[in-house]
Specification:
The chain is α+β, with helices and mostly antiparallel strands. The protein has six helices and 14 strands. The chain starts with 5 loop residues before the first strand and ends with a strand.
């Protein structure tokens, strides 16, 4: 299958000097009922970029590029993914087996969360419109900082079954020691796949970590929820960045990418974002549907 590089726009975070003194933030809930509240202080810096097709640019490795395209078949139908019980029972088990088989360096896996995105036909023309599912994200980001990864794991483990708590390392008891006070290493991985394919509608692009200058290009961002705060990492423009996607990505084409590593904050991670594929995507008869599962992997 011939590859297709695409000229499109990556919506980077702003390089405005105000963010040297002011931390970026956004809210994950409406603040319309709070007079004077500002839901976000974000500024953006859209840039025209070439997004290269991995079908013509070879293999990428999780430990160097921060992401890897792999093959994985699931027994679930598209309709099965609408069931929380089926996803958390059957699909989680499949992903656990997939990680153990293909990434054997990880001895234990704990599931943090999953998210299904189904693009509305009105996206992105009607920002803020009510939708039934999360929409594609166009702002390049890494899902967690190492500190937030630890907090997210602690929250996730609190609601999981007792057998998870009996895994090696006594994970729950040691989680509060992860930041430099123990040799336990926590890595956050995402396993991303399409629910329908082959797809070219708003595909996922990933930035090769070898082309990123983390100190200059990245900055942390607060995500404010009603009951808590999260933290992820945004990306500023650098002309050296190289972006990649897969044309005609099908349901068995899985992307594995790293979000955080508590042992090494500068280990390869994958900033990622969706982009408009106005050429190939415009002739597609269905909109993008995808699932991302985030797991904590222990070495």
């Amino acid at each position: 299958m011939a590859g297709r590089d695409v000229h499109s726009q990556i919506v980077y975070f702003s390089q405005n000097d105000k963010f040297k003194a002011e931390k970026p933030y956004t809210t994950a809930f409406s603040v319309a009922d709070r007079p004077g509240a500002i839901p976000s202080n974000h500024d953006f810096d859209p840039r025209d970029m070439v997004i290269h097709d991995v079908r013509k640019h070879g293999h990428f490795d999780l430990n160097t590029a921060g992401f890897q395209f792999m093959k994985h078949n699931t027994s679930l139908t598209r309709e099965d993914f609408d069931s929380i019980d089926i996803v958390e029972d059957r699909y989680y088990a499949e992903i656990n087996d997939f990680v153990q088989k293909n990434l054997p360096q990880y001895s234990t896996v704990a599931f943090l969360e999953y998210e299904i995105r189904k693009r509305s036909e009105h996206f992105p023309q009607a920002p803020g419109a009510e939708t039934t599912h999360a929409q594609p994200l166009t702002l390049p980001h890494v899902d967690y900082t190492p500190d937030h990864a630890v907090r997210r794991l602690e929250k996730a483990l609190g609601g999981q079954h007792q057998e998870l708590l009996e895994q090696p390392f006594e994970v729950l008891k040691q989680v509060h020691h992860l930041n430099g006070r123990t040799r336990l290493r926590l890595i956050i991985l995402s396993i991303w796949r399409l629910l329908k394919g082959p797809n070219n509608d708003w595909p996922l692009a990933l930035c090769d970590y070898r082309t990123v200058n983390p100190e200059r290009d990245s900055l942390t961002n607060d995500i404010l929820f009603r009951e808590e705060a999260g933290e992820n990492i945004l990306l500023k423009y650098n002309g050296a960045h190289q972006w990649y996607y897969m044309s005609d990505q099908d349901v068995d084409d899985v992307i594995v990418f790293r979000n955080a590593d508590t042992d090494s904050p500068n280990s390869a991670r994958a900033w990622h974002a969706s982009f408009i594929n106005s050429g190939a995507g415009s002739g597609q008869s269905f909109v993008r549907e995808s699932i991302e599962v985030r797991v904590a992997a222990f070495t």
